[in-house]
Amino acid sequence: MKTVLIPGGAGYIGSHTVRALADAGFNCVVYDNLSEGHREAVKDFELIEGDLLDFEKLTQVFKSRKIDGVVHFAAFALVGVSMKDPLAYYRNNVIGTHNLLTTMVNTEVKNIVFSSTCAVYGDVKNVPINESFLAEPCNPYGETKLAVERMLKWCDAAHNIKYVCPRYFNAAGAMSDGSIGEDHKLETHLIPLVYRAILKNETLSVFGNDYQTRDGSCIRDYIHVCDLADAHVKALKFLLDGGSSMSVNLGTEYGASVFEIIKAAEQASGMVVNYTVAPRRAGDPPILVADTSLAKEKLGWNAVRGLKEIMADAWQWHKNHPKGYGG
Ligand code: UDP
After folding, report:
1. Which of 138, 258, 259 to mutate to test ligand 1, by most ligand atoms within 8 A of the CB atom?
2. 189 Cβ inside 6 Å of ligand 1
3. What is the pLDDT along the chain (327 residues), one digit of tens a residue?
4. Which of 26, 68, 222, 326 is deepest in the core (most CB within 10 A)?
5. Is 256 close to ligand 1, i.e. is its CB under 6 Å away?
6. CA 258 to ligand 1 centroid distance, Å
């Protein structure tokens, strides 16, 4: 059985991927400082509580077992916070991953799947976005992810470390059995906030209705977290089978507007969403939709769950866990 180390595996996308890796026959070792992750999300798996900035601990983990590959999620991931505190993002995301890669080089671990983001593209002029688009992030979060992608490129050249960097579009949904889902300390994402508005009788702010889109609100490519998880399994297998390094988009190629998400949430829940139109949120591009041809070609992957499943599974999770894992 092959062993995978999963930094950040107790977080939202990480915990869904741990399940998918285990289902595919991998032995999963989660390494997480629990700053955003939840012990309960990985309760059936080995969890080492640790930080990527703790070089000694990381080294000890790598030396104490044979690790065949790394699937790395541990990072700060809020655009707005990164604008206010870029150095915290560089320290955690870039220096943390520098430690991880140094340890991999020292212990001759050669394969890594690194969670990247469509935020590396910045403000694009056209959609769908493919991987040949110029990567020009417009916030520190995207910059730190791109910095790691570039660090990986040079680690491949110098140390033969092979990587896949999945660039996620908008991760959403939850495990369909309702056991794990999305629970962030600071929630800024649309779908959890739409359901929070329903469950707590709050009013959702729609950030802008005057964009050049079909209904004036922003359009995003929402992808089911379990589809993302399956893509990570395929990416790891691709590397273990000798695949070469790449960055690859993960989305559905379908864009939904904010108003369409509100409607889909009403259909999934049978409840009404109270909303008000608010000013645009700084830094929001009008439309982001993925071209996922490369993932299809190289990984044999495409998203199999649509917006209906995303909204139904997210509703199930939020309805049953209105206070998240702690509730
Ligand atoms: N959005 C919104 N109200 C909210 C949160 C988000 O109208 O309370 C919009 C946001 O402006 C963007 C879309 O929903 O156009 C998706 O935002 P989210 O934060 O979920 O993901 P992002 O695309 O920023 O990563």
Report:
1. 258
2. yes
3. 999 999 999 999 999 999 999 999 999 999 999 999 999 999 999 999 999 999 999 999 999 999 999 999 999 999 889 999 999 999 999 999 999 999 999 999 999 999 999 999 998 889 999 999 999 998 999 999 999 999 999 999 999 999 999 999 999 999 999 999 999 999 999 999 999 999 999 999 999 999 999 999 999 999 999 999 999 999 999 999 999 999 999 999 999 999 999 999 999 999 999 999 999 988 788 999 999 999 999 999 999 999 999 999 999 999 999 999 987
4. 222
5. no
6. 7
Q: Give the whole-angstrom CA distance, residue 49 versus residue 18.
A: 16
141 is annotated as an active-site residue? yes
Q: Does 205 contact ligand 1 (Cβ within 6 A)? A: yes
pTM above 0.90, yes or no: yes
Q: Which CATH number does the domain 3-172+222-250 belong to among 3.40.50.2300, 3.90.320.10, 3.30.450.190, 3.40.50.720?
A: 3.40.50.720
Q: Does domain 190-220+253-326 have CATH number 3.90.25.10?
A: yes
| Amino acid identity for residue 274 in this structure | N
Q: How far is CA 243 from CA 157, 203, 236, 253, in A?
A: 15, 48, 9, 24
Ligand 1 centroid distance, CA of 180 (Å): 22
